Each structure stands twice: as structure tokens, then as C-alpha cells.
Amino acid sequence: MTIRIVGGGLAGSEAAWQAASRGVPVTLYEMRPVRATAVHKTDRLAELVCSNSFRGDKLDNAVGLLKEEMRRLDSLVMRAAEASRVPAGAALAVDRERFAEIITQTLSTHPLITIVREEIGSIPASSESEPVIVATGPLTSDALSADLASLVGQAHLYFYDAISPIVLAETIDRSKVFRQSRWDRSLRGSSFDTLRTSEGTSDTARGEPVEPRAPACGVDDGEGDYLNCPLTRDEYEAFYRALISAESATVHDFDKERFFEGCLPIEVMAHRGPDTLRFGPMKPVGLTDPRTGREPYAAVQLRQDNLAGDHFSLVGFQTQIKWGDQARVLRMIPGLEAAEFVRFGMVHRNTYVNGPTVLAETWQVRARPTVFFAGQMSGVEGYVESAASGLLAGINAAALAKGEPVSSPPRTTAIGALAYYVSHANPAHYEPSNITFGIIQALDPGKAPRGKKLRNLALSERALADLAVWMGAVLTP
Ligand SMILES: Cc1cc2nc3c(=O)[nH]c(=O)nc-3n(C[C@H](O)[C@H](O)[C@H](O)COP(=O)(O)OP(=O)(O)OC[C@H]3O[C@@H](n4cnc5c(N)ncnc54)[C@H](O)[C@@H]3O)c2cc1C
Fold this sequence. Notes:
alpha+beta, 6-stranded antiparallel β-sheet
């Protein structure tokens, strides 16, 4: 009895932990440092390649619910995230090095886990007692991609993603920026163990609570202890003009290329209209410039990227502008005139399979149920979602190896809803998804409170109760 896992990213690491925690020996194959990817920088397991944020952490927010479910399922990724947490208001952001180090240490010292540094070129042989989990991520190596394509019977899908630049903290002009959470929300001083709710999330126009937007690439939910770079109208217009005339590194035809909508490069957004950025990553709402006492015309938010606090990333500023132009344009942002870039933004390809045609709700490949896919390449989007899919794949692969039934939590839970979405969404228009309340089974009409926030909290309450029932039925011997 053993489980082979290919890929030591967020999904593969979590799957290894879950399977080994159930007493099943695991061999985890990770190709770094023998073979690099285009974006990973280290040989550590579970390296976060872009944003250091796991997004919102409150229960009126779907990704907050997903994280809470993972904590209750003893997720290693969640343990490591808590242990490496950096201030980010109501979001869960981590020191990326410490995070990956904790996971690497934990797995490499686990008595049931063997880590092999090797590129796997084809899906290993599998059987019920020796299942395989493939979790090779958006940057799955070419050799394995070809073998995957022959298993799933179709060419892989892909789109382009882009990552945000990071600047050195000491090069930010503090006289021009101000520290503030949007709507003044912050977790500091609040109790963190009880039901988490986000206070003050209101859309000023309608007075209606809004669910924070939470796409994968760190255009967070606007919560957090950010440094804000305020722009006047003149500054914004000059920045906009420079941005749309800057030279792009690879993709020139913005209409034809496929980008993930939640992670659009700023220049692609800018090409959609002069104000698009002011309603996106440069939105000023909820911010007050202490020097004027007013909301700025536009703002760029910088989020602390490591515990030392010496790196800040430009939130939602993923870009693929050529590096020379990138530095020139971004230095037009007030406070960043002399910024030194630790990393420039860039674009990359994102590989994923069409989940609904390939996968069962248990993350098993329908055509070969002794093989599981997990993580981004299985058709989810985001760090947390990838880890969540690895968590369930690990539990189920262990069950299969031990001759026990496989299962998925109910669709009333976030983790079950994600599994259901990946295996049952419309394959004709399939796009990897972040977790949202929209994919969780709705409340009975009679039981749904009025108002979005209360409804979301009720969904979360039900999810956690149903998860407890599932855990009691499935996970206890
Ligand atoms: C450039 C970029 C930026 C991103 N930004 C964000 C972000 O800001 N926020 C967010 O939530 N998500 C982001 N994502 C998505 C992110 O990749 C996933 O959320 C998450 O890392 C996926 O986890 P995973 O375990 O599926 O893949 P990964 O974490 O990428 O892990 C896959 C692992 O498999 C290894 N591997 C690949 N092929 C082989 C092989 N043949 N043999 C052995 N090992 C192999 C790789 O080296 C890697 O370690 C980004 C992705 C990319 C590529």
C-alpha cells in the first residue's frame, strides 16, 4: 500500500500530508530543483509563486469558509499559513519563505513520506492499493503534459495569467503614501476564533453589503493594512497614457488572447477604457488621504509581502509590460518614483483539464479511477482552492488504498461544492473557478435570511454543521 503523488506544490503537499496522516505511505515526486519552472524560485515544496495572500478570512466570504473547513480537516497548508501569517487586515497573508519552509520541513521529516526530486514524464502505473495523484500545477512540465493529454483524450486548455511586481520597502517614499485598510477594516484587536464576519463592507451607492471580490492574483478583497499611493486626476491621466503606450512583452492582440478574468494584466484593463482601472485595482473607494481629508481620485495599494516587511507587492497590478517600460511606468505612481523592483510582473501559461469531462467529484479520473488529479491543473483556481482539492484527493486516495469507500462532502460545504463544480459544470464553457457562494447549494427559500451578509453567514453555518456530520460519518474509524 502506497500512494505516489506527482508535484509538490500546494495540492500535492496537502495531499501527501492527508494521506500520510491516515497511515498510508507516500512517495512525493517534485521536479525542482532538478528541473525548474518558469516562475518558481526555490526548491521548497508549496512555494507561492505570486501573491502572498490566501485572501479573505471571514465567514461571510466564501474563501474564508473554505479555509475554515480546511482547518477543521487538519490542513497542513492552513497550519503553515497561520504559523507564517503577516499583517493583512481581514485577509490571511503569509511570509512566503517561512510558509514553504514549514511545509517542506514537516513533509520531509514525516516518517511515512519519501520525497524524490525527479521530473515525472508520464503518469505512473496505478492500482487500487497504489493510487496516483497528479498535482503538477499550471506549469506542468511538457513531457507530462503530453501524457496527460493522451489520458484525458483531448488537447489541454490554457489561458494566460500574469503576476504583479514587488518593490523594496525602503525605496517607497513614505511621505507620499499612507497606511490604511479600505473602509478602515482590519482584524487587529478582533476575536479570531468565533464566527468571523466582515464589518463595514458596504457599497456606498446602494448601502448594500457586498461580497468582496476575490480573484486569484491578489486583487484581494480590499481589506488589509495597506500602503496606499494616492493619485490626483492629472497623475492618473498621465499614468493611464503611459500605460497604454507601454510596450508589452509578448501578447499584443488584447482582444484575442485568453486571460483569466480575475487576473487581467493592468494594461489589458486599461485598453478597455480610461476608467476601468479606477473601478478595479486603482479604485479609491473606502480610502481617505490624510493630507486632503478626501478620497483620492485613484489609488494603488501596496501589500506587505514577507514577515520582515521589506517587500511590498502592488495589489492587482499583474502585468506583462517589458521590464524597462514597466519600471518607467510604475515609477509614475506617487511614492514609487525611486522604487527598486525585487520582481517585475510577467505573464505565463496556465494549463488545466476540462474537469467536468474528466473528473469525478472525488477528484478521481473517471476513465482511470486509480488516478486522481488535484490542484490548478484539475480545473480549480487559486492557492486555497488548489490546496483544498489536494486535501480531498489525499483523503480519498488513502481510502482507496485502504479498501475503504471514497466520498466527497455535501454540496452545502465549500469543499464539496468545489468538487461538484469541477466535476459537473458545463464543459462547453468550462473555466477554472475560485470558490464562491454561488456554487454552494442555495439555502431553502424559507430559511434564507434577508441581506447578502446574513445569507452568507447562514450558508457558512450550515456548511460547517454539514461538514461535521460528513467527518463523523466518513473520517472516524
Ligand atoms: C505565475 C503564476 C502566478 C499565480 N498567482 C497566483 C496568486 O497570486 N494567487 C493564487 O491564489 N494563485 C496564483 N496562481 C495559481 C497558482 O499556481 C495556484 O493557485 C497554485 O500554486 C496551484 O497549486 P498546485 O499545487 O496546483 O500547483 P503548484 O503550486 O504550481 O505545484 C505544482 C508542482 O509540480 C511540480 N511539477 C510540475 N511538473 C512536474 C513533473 N512532470 N514532475 C514532477 N514535478 C512536477 C512543479 O515544480 C510544482 O512544484 C498563480 C500561478 C502562476 C503560474
